[in-house]
Amino acid sequence: MREILFLAHRIPWPADRGDKIRSHHILKRLCEMAPVHVGTFADDDRDMGFAEAMDGLVASRHVELRSKPQWQAGIEGLLTGQPISVRSFASPSIQSWVNARIASGVVSHIFCFSGQMAQYVPMDFRGRFIMDFVDVDSAKFESYAGEGHSLMRWVNRREGRVLARFESEIAQRADASLLVSEAEAKLFQDRTGASTVMAMGNGIDTGFYDPDGQYNKLHPPFPDPLIVFTGQMDYRPNVEAVSDFAHHAMPMIRAQHPEATFAIVGRNPTQAVSDLSMLPGVQVTGAVDDVRTWLAAADVIVAPLRIARGIQNKVLEAMAMAKPVIASPAAAEGIDAEHGQHLFVEENIAAEAARVCALLAEPGSGLAIGQAARMHVIAHYGWRSQLALLDRLMGLVTDDPQ
């Protein structure tokens, strides 16, 4: 029997944030190939509520609420010599479930999504092991090592070093290591020396992200002009991006466009993000029913991330909605699109503010680049084409669904 074990650090249902969008579509494609057993974590009770949604699709599942506090993971990491981020996802019950699935003799393939879950793949597994690192997590921690107080700098330096070693060890075991972009794949290969490193990009559902689709519109009176950022608002790069934009870009923008509003759209805003709503022209929405409502209402979408790895789904979603996007070089990296033709890539906060002002002054130019962006995404970022590599790597006979 040829069946697949799918391991993910976060339940791949629903596809409502960056990492879950990728894992969701990969899981659906794997289920077209063979029966799939899913082992994963839920961040909270809301995510646990989606576990049953997978029952009609997967052969079996083990979804566990992740409740280990960070301090405990830190102590475990220091005592064992392992990365703290890996110990954060260490669970004896998931390991027992994985062992039982493999002992049943039906699992011929393991697809592991995110490096934290590689700890569950037995050293003696003789089937095919595909590892999707998505991006180079160790490099992210290394970039944090120069910031904050001395203890956190030490923790991040250690995490970058220990995690890099862990990534290299896993890459040597895996039949293939996947990264989300060619740039991430090259960086990972240079760091690990692994020979089977490949890029498998993210796609976008252009039927769902369609400016002419069926979704609730933002009822008037809504802010005009409107600048929008979307993302998970307890994720550090997003928090830093919106704080920088709200404090430094918005005063420059409102000097020319006094009624401009910056809407920060996304769930779980930290206190630092919520406090930004006290600034002139800044609105923090928290979780919304449908992000398309805000994308459609926006005059400009911004993605001013200073630290980013891989492909930013928020950029592809905005492009699919035919909106002009202003992205930092970090946010645009990995996206095959031309500056000034499909989006704008600006080097710093002053250039981002100037570009926003120019687009608000000439709405027609934003409309034109938005239309070009949508056509580009339709042509190059469909999930079927992005996952073609997955079909070859798994080596399972499939019927191409219509």
From TrEMBL:
Keyword Transferase: yes
GO terms assigned for molecular function: glycosyltransferase activity
UniProt entry keywords in alphabetical sequence: Transferase
A UniProt-annotated Pfam family: Glyco_trans_1_4
InterPro entries noted in UniProt: Glycosyltransferase_grp1 (IPR050194), Sugar_tfrase_PEP-CTERM_Stp1 (IPR017521)
Name of the protein this chain belongs to: TIGR03087 family PEP-CTERM/XrtA system glycosyltransferase
